[in-house]
Design goal:
Number of helices: 14
Shape: globular
Strand order of the largest sheet: 1-2
Distance between the termini: 95 Å
Strand content: under 5%
Low-confidence stretches: 36-55
Helix content: 55-70%
Mean pLDDT: 82
Structural class: mainly alpha
Largest sheet: 2 strands, antiparallel
Order of helices and strands: HHHHHEEHHHHHHHHH
Length: 326
């Protein structure tokens, strides 16, 4: 009788676990639809979990996914919901710092949640959420503290670049320098040298050391089209920033501009359409800034007519502080 009773209990526990697993996977699936198909305004029916005995780790995981679901399924950004979720994630960071106890959740699940949050924040218009890059930077700090972004000791170039981009957006230059130094050995060995030169060139650019940018870029032999595009964008912007009252940088800038146009045409089959469009829109606005005959009104009008532009923030700032090339 006791054995039968024990077996019944075990079966019930297994059923409870299966129900919980199903509930978590279902919520994750709904989040995937919301995130990838951008259907935040669509009504989703979400079944409520039955009251079943589960582990603290499972309860924590389910609670996090429910909080995330409620946040991304809102028609507008609700800061209280975001801050509550971030506070919970920050508590895991504090636990890791103390090293007193293991995390009450699978690190892979934490990575999924942070990735969803970052993606969600990126899609919010900066006009409606001025703090979005600060929020994303805080999430990246949590992910780095918990070592979520390295797989088998390697951090992908895309993740490395994304973290740097956000650090630059919030003017965390010293932090970015430390990040580059700390994670340099974790980059893929094959492209490590090029990635590090580009990263340090970007840091120099943000710190307005434009001569250093050009010196660093001379050392690069691009491994792929992404590196080549980044090199060209850094070089042409640095030359623009270094302009003076002579023809020296005017002529070099014009040569780099023309070479960039030729490159986009030459690599048409390699680059995707949106990348080409974004870069060409950049060059159109850059040409207006570069053209001494253009008025500020003409430049602003052309800028406003383009929706997708690479280096959008930089162009916006240059238009705001516009002075003719010479």
């Amino acid at each position: 009788k006791n054995k039968l009773k024990s077996r019944v209990y075990q079966i019930k526990q297994a059923q409870n676990y299966n129900l919980l697993t199903y509930e978590i996977n279902r919520i994750k699936y709904e989040l995937e639809l919301i995130n990838r198909k951008n259907i935040l305004n669509e009504n989703h029916e979400k079944k409520q979990s039955t009251s079943i005995p589960v582990s603290t780790k499972s309860e924590t995981l389910l609670s996090l996914y429910e909080q995330l679901y409620e946040l991304v399924n809102s028609n507008s950004f609700e800061s209280n919901k975001y801050l509550a979720l971030k506070h919970k994630l920050s508590s895991f960071k504090a636990m890791d710092e103390k090293k007193e106890t293991s995390l009450p959740i699978d690190p892979n699940e934490l990575l999924i949640i942070i990735t969803y949050l970052v993606s969600y924040l990126y899609k919010r218009p900066i006009t409606k959420l001025p703090e979005k890059f600060t929020f994303i930077f805080e999430l990246y700090e949590i992910g780095l503290q918990l070592d979520l972004f390295r797989e088998n000791g390697i951090i992908s170039e895309q993740k490395f670049s994304n973290v740097l981009n956000v650090a630059f957006e919030v003017d965390e230059f010293q932090w970015a320098q430390s990040f580059i130094h700390k994670y340099s050995s974790s980059l893929p060995e094959k492209t490590r040298s090029t990635i590090l030169i580009l990263a340090n060139a970007r840091l120099a650019f943000e710190m307005q050391n434009f001569k250093k940018v050009l010196t660093l870029l001379e050392k690069i032999r691009p491994n792929n089209v992404a590196h080549s595009l980044e090199l060209r964008l850094l070089k042409i912007r640095s030359l623009y920033e270094m302009r003076d009252q002579s023809n020296k940088y005017f002529e070099e800038t014009e040569a780099v501009f023309n070479a960039f146009q030729v490159y986009l045409t030459k690599e048409k089959a390699t680059l995707n359409h949106s990348t080409i469009e974004n870069c060409r829109n950049f060059l159109i606005i850059f040409r207006h800034l570069f053209d001494r005959k253009r008025s500020l009104e003409d430049i602003q009008q052309k800028f406003n007519s383009k929706q997708n532009i690479v280096c959008h923030s930089w162009l916006q700032k240059k238009i705001k502080d516009y002075t003719p090339f010479f």
